[in-house]
Design goal:
Number of helices: 2
Structural class: alpha+beta
Strand content: 15-25%
Oligomer: single chain
Number of strands: 4
Distance between the termini: 94 Å
Shape: elongated
Amino acid sequence: MKPRPVRGRSERGAALAEFALVLPLLALIVFGTIDLGRVFRLNTRLANAAREGAGTGQFDPYRVDTGCRGHANVVDRVKDEDAGLATLPGFVVRVFKRDSVTGSLVPPGGITGCDPAAPTVTIVPGDRVVVQVEAVLDALTPLSGRAHITVRGSHEVVVQG
């Protein structure tokens, strides 16, 4: 009959050292998964808010900024869809026209203001308007240097007459 081995201090120390080596990788996987879920959730919230703002932009694309026609403007409709978005860092709403020839978004900074009398870009029924909503998310993942992730949701609609 063989004698049973006795666990000594050296084996416990080895297990602790192995755990110390695996812990950073484990933390990276866990927090990375949490961050991925947070990004996906924020993207969904931003896309829903952009869709709501695009509903207004579809019929009145020049009424972008807060204060245009009370709450009947793109920015206020976005904020009404999800009030928590406006409190996030880097929250911004932009409205663009998609150029039918090049497919690019114009003007570069987006359409702003309330007055269609002096537009920065001409929009007619049948043009495509894109509403983009973005915000910044701070990553929880260790070793990322406190990365800031910019998340954007957008929705495109055809302007109605």
